[in-house]
């Protein structure tokens, strides 16, 4: 079992994080699409803090000495997932920005060319 | 009265020409938004000499449609119609959609296939999903919208300007309905008959379905938490 104090801290900080996230989505500061993973993290820790026996089950099955360490392991796994998603998203954004910049450069070039053409005609 | 038909298109080479031809017979302007298709959609638009925007980056349905609303807002259109590029929606109903807007019966009119329940009714799983959104919207706003995911819609200038400023990135339809209802705008449905998409595949597959349901449900609930009566005024 994990200590009751830790359980309490987990639950309270989870609720605070949930309110923080929802409020920021509400204010259009966060995009729900990219916040879903955080909400998933909250859901998982919430379940674990209410039913710590899941942690006991995990720790006894893969020979982790204390259930708290199993909690850390899961937390790491989830955080890694979020980080990986962010890497994917950043890569996409980088590609998109590059494409947009190139498109803009080409458009400028075309505009200049047609302006020059028009100028030489006049 | 300036009317624009916004046609979001992603890989619709098999459908777009027929649709645009039908639309040009009506007395309205058309705008195809090519969302970075990998097929010859843009080439067809070019050859047809139709009005189109070729997005350099794939934005998804929300971003593509919003581009149309931006265009409509900038060119001062009175009414914008959203019609899918996949041939599901019959342009013959556009007149009915537009009529309700002209007569000031509604700010947004949705073409619903579940009022008369005729024509293509979609698969059972999807109908369950759509019913879920109908109940959720009913619960949150006390209004019944039978076909909240319908992408066949018409709206007036007020809504055009609002959509030009704020529009959800993906799966936008149900969420925008809640946004409008929450801002005390009038949303009306009229019965239409839809076809099964003529060519190509739908953008939502079964793996995405669960994600879609969770995301849109959350989006609707969070939207209901937003302040009322403030946003529309800000953007008009």
From TrEMBL, chain A:
<dbReference type="InterPro" id="IPR019277">
    <property type="entry name" value="DUF2304"/>
</dbReference>
<protein>
    <submittedName>
        <fullName>DUF2304 domain-containing protein</fullName>
    </submittedName>
</protein>
<feature type="transmembrane region" description="Helical">
    <location>
        <begin position="6"/>
        <end position="24"/>
    </location>
</feature>
<feature type="transmembrane region" description="Helical">
    <location>
        <begin position="36"/>
        <end position="58"/>
    </location>
</feature>
<dbReference type="Pfam" id="PF10066">
    <property type="entry name" value="DUF2304"/>
</dbReference>
<feature type="transmembrane region" description="Helical">
    <location>
        <begin position="70"/>
        <end position="90"/>
    </location>
</feature>
<keyword id="KW-0812">Transmembrane</keyword>
<keyword id="KW-1133">Transmembrane helix</keyword>
<keyword id="KW-0472">Membrane</keyword>
Automatic annotation (TrEMBL), chain B:
<dbReference type="InterPro" id="IPR001173">
    <property type="entry name" value="Glyco_trans_2-like"/>
</dbReference>
<dbReference type="InterPro" id="IPR029044">
    <property type="entry name" value="Nucleotide-diphossugar_trans"/>
</dbReference>
<dbReference type="InterPro" id="IPR050256">
    <property type="entry name" value="Glycosyltransferase_2"/>
</dbReference>
<protein>
    <submittedName>
        <fullName>Glycosyltransferase family 2 protein</fullName>
    </submittedName>
</protein>
<dbReference type="Pfam" id="PF00535">
    <property type="entry name" value="Glycos_transf_2"/>
</dbReference>
<feature type="domain" description="Glycosyltransferase 2-like">
    <location>
        <begin position="6"/>
        <end position="160"/>
    </location>
</feature>
């Amino acid at each position: 079992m994990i200590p009751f104090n830790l359980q309490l801290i987990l639950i309270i900080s989870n609720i605070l994080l949930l309110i923080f996230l929802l409020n920021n989505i509400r204010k259009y500061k966060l995009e729900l699409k990219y916040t879903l993973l955080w909400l998933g993290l909250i859901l998982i820790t919430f379940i674990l803090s209410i039913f710590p026996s899941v942690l006991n089950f995990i720790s006894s099955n893969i020979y982790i000495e204390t259930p708290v360490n199993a909690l850390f392991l899961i937390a790491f796994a989830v955080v890694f997932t979020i980080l990986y998603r962010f890497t994917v998203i950043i890569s996409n954004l980088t590609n998109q920005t590059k494409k947009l910049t190139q498109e803009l450069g080409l458009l400028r070039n075309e505009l200049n060319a047609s302006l020059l053409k028009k100028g030489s005609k006049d | 009265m300036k009317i624009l038909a916004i046609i979001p298109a992603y890989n619709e080479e098999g459908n777009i020409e027929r649709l645009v031809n039908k639309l040009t017979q009506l007395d309205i302007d058309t705008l195809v938004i090519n969302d970075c298709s990998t097929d010859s959609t843009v080439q067809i638009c070019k050859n047809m000499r139709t009005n189109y925007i070729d997005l350099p980056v794939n934005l998804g349905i929300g971003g593509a449609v919003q581009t149309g609303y931006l265009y409509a807002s900038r060119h001062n259109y009175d009414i914008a119609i959203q019609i899918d590029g996949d041939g599901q929606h019959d342009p013959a109903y556009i007149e009915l959609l537009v009529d309700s807007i002209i007569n000031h019966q509604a700010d947004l009119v949705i073409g619903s296939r579940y009022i008369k329940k005729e024509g293509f009714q979609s698969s059972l799983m999807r109908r369950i999903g759509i019913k879920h959104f109908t109940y959720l919207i009913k619960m949150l706003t006390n209004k019944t919208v039978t076909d909240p995911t319908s992408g066949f819609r018409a709206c007036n200038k007020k809504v055009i300007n609002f959509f030009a400023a704020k529009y959800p990135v993906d799966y936008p339809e149900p969420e925008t309905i809640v946004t409008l209802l929450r801002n005390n705008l009038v949303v009306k449905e009229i019965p239409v008959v839809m076809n099964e998409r003529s060519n190509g595949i739908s953008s939502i597959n079964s793996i995405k379905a669960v994600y879609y349901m969770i995301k849109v449900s959350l989006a609707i609930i969070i939207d209901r938490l937003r302040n009322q009566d403030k946003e529309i005024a800000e953007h008009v």
